[in-house]
Amino acid sequence: MDRIRIKGGRPLEGRIPISGAKNAALPLMIASLLTGETLELRNVPRLADVGLLLRILGNHGVDHTVTGKRPGQTSETGQTILLDASSVIDTRAPYELVSRMRASFWVIAPLIARFGEASVSLPGGCAIGTRPVDLLIMALERLGVSIEIESGYVQAKAPKGLKGAEIVFPKVTVSGTHVALMAATLADGETVIENAAREPEVVDLADCLNKMGARVSGAGTSRIVIQGVSRLRGATHTVMPDRIETGTYAMAVAMTGGDVLLEGARPEYLQSALDILSEVGVDIQANNEGIRVRRNGAKLRSVDVTTDPFPGFPTDLQAQFMALMTRADGTSRIRETIFENRFMHVQELARFGAHIRLDGDAALVEGVETLTGAPVMATDLRASVSLVIAGLAAEGETEIHRVYHLDRGFEALEAKLSRCGAEIERLRAA
Ligand SMILES: CC(=O)N[C@H]1[C@@H](OP(=O)(O)OP(=O)(O)OC[C@H]2O[C@@H](n3ccc(=O)[nH]c3=O)[C@H](O)[C@@H]2O)O[C@H](CO)[C@@H](O)[C@@H]1O
Ligand SMILES: C=C(OP(=O)(O)O)C(=O)O
């Protein structure tokens, strides 16, 4: 298995191009199943999750073409993928594929909406909590889908098509909102989603669906209204920039010091995290090229954080922020409210000499003067990048094992960081 080796202690200086968002690209690719015409997606990041989803879609009979680079694109700033679901032959999504990536379960929505049946294995994904799919099933049932769970598969049937309904989510769920939204586009009549997720990735999906002929309004608010249509057509859509990648590199610069322009980043997608970074003592300036992040040698201040659905502080930046707080002045209390088991990075950060104590759903991080490089193990996607952030600031050498987690969600990580002066390299498995 590949490893990543980092020699810490160098400030980051330069420019980092922000890739298309993994968490927007995945539902957009899945939405291609809603139409028999071609969906052209631009700025799709080159990531393991994208490759796996192409295989899953291919298994249903979706053809895809990856086109060459566009002018101005570098090898780490996106690809264009044409998806053609005109000849879907299989509405079954097997365990072998779905168990490897959580979002692949969402194919259930376009399959049931367009073909009236689907059989999808219960999902797997990052080990950050139990992550049930009860709310996704509730939403589909509200739309008239009959569901049975047999031998680990969700068997969905709606031979007469879907019927618009009111769907009230008892808690905010991104996956539930994506699934309800996609399914409702082809339902008969009006669907109202109450307490919908307001994440920018939901808005990106709704924008693309509208280009495909759907009638969705209110995305980005907690009430989304969908007027069902009988069919959707092909469209061209550009994937939004990745707000989690943006926040991750902003925290890396905060950690090492330096001056980096995050090219193409959009501040409105992560304002709560940028506000926290300002409180910590980082200089953040948005301009028409992106977001410039600077920190001189001044000590980082410790700040308390609680994760929340958008527009709150994202859970997907919690581990990275914890890495940053390991070197702040004082103690920071970081509370995780979205996933019950998202503290796997704590024991790995301790290997660098960090002082972190768990207290229920919170971690108390007492800043230390120096971190020391160590061998560490990536446990999930965002946890693994928190180890990269710690390694960049640690004295000496760090080696990160199980980097396949990183490859799920960070395009060209080593190239982007080393161009800004980091000493980071991938040691390929023999
Ligand atoms: C591919 C993708 O976009 N993944 C993101 C998505 O995950 P995902 O869409 O899986 O996260 P959700 O917003 O659905 O989950 C939020 C909470 O609701 C719970 N829940 C969810 C569905 C359900 O049927 N029942 C239930 O109880 C979950 O266990 C969790 O505690 O949003 C999360 C929250 O911003 C992010 O951390 C993930 O990176
Ligand atoms: C948790 C994540 O992904 P997934 O929902 O696919 O597990 C993530 O992107 O941080």
UniProtKB/TrEMBL annotation:
Keyword Hydrolase in annotation: no
Statement: the UniProt record of this protein carries the keyword Secreted: no
Residues annotated to bind UDP-N-acetyl-alpha-D-glucosamine: 102, 131-135, 316, 338
Q: Which InterPro entries match?
A: Enolpyruvate_Tfrase_dom (IPR001986), Enolpyruvate_Tfrase_sf (IPR036968), MurA_subfamily (IPR050068), RNA3'P_cycl/enolpyr_Trfase_a/b (IPR013792), UDP_GlcNAc_COvinyl_MurA (IPR005750)
The protein's matches in Pfam families, at most eight in alphabetical order, are given as: EPSP_synthase
Could you give a single Gene Ontology term from the biological process aspect?
A: cell wall organization
Compartment(s) of residence:
Cytoplasm
Give the Enzyme Commission number: 2.5.1.7
Instruction: State where it is primarily located.
Output: cytoplasm
Provide the top EC class.
Answer: transferase
Residue numbers bearing the 2-(S-cysteinyl)pyruvic acid O-phosphothioketal modification = 126
Task: Tell me the pathway.
Answer: Cell wall biogenesis; peptidoglycan biosynthesis
Catalytic center at which residues? Answer: 126 (proton donor)
Please give the name of this protein: UDP-N-acetylglucosamine 1-carboxyvinyltransferase
* High-level lineage: Bacteria, Pseudomonadati, Pseudomonadota, Alphaproteobacteria, Hyphomicrobiales
